[in-house]
Amino acid sequence: MTERGQATGGVPRALSSFVGRKELLVELRRRLGASPLITLTGVGGGGKTRLALELAGQVQRAYDDGVRVVELAPARGGDPELLAQVVLSAVGVPDQATTTPLDTLVDYLRSRRVLLVLDNCEHLVEPVAQLVRAVLGAAPGVRVLATSRARLRVPGEVLVMVPPLEVPAEDAPPSAACESVALLVERAEAGVPGWRVTPENWPDVVRVLRRTAGIPLAIEQAVVRMRSMPVSLLADRLDDVMRVLTANDTTRVAHHQTMAAMIDWSHAQCTPAERLLWARLSVFEGGFSLPAAEAVCSGGELGRDEVADALAGLLDKSIALPSADRSRHHLLEPLRQHGAVRLRASGDLADVRARHQAFFREEAARLAGGFVGHNEAALLAAVDLDMANHRVVLADLITDPDSAHAGLQMSVDLARTRWYTYAGRLPEERLWLGRALAATPATADPLRVSAMALDAWIALCLGVERAQVARRVEELIGLAGEVGVPLPPVTFVRGAYEVLALGEIGGVELLRQAHEGFGAMGPHFAVDHHLAHILHTVSLVLLGTREQAEPAAEEFFAECERLGALWGISWAHWCRSVVQTRWGSPTRALEVLKEGLRVQRAIRDKWGPLWTIEALGWAHAEAGDAAAAARMLGLAHGLHRVTGVRVDGLVPFALFSGRAAARARATLGDDAYERAYANPAESVEQALAAVLDEPEPAGPRDRRPAGLTQAEWNVARLVGDGLSNPEVADRLVISPATVHTHLTRIYRKLDIANRHQLITLLANLAE
Question: What's the gap between Cα 623 and its chain centre?
Answer without folding.
Answer: 39
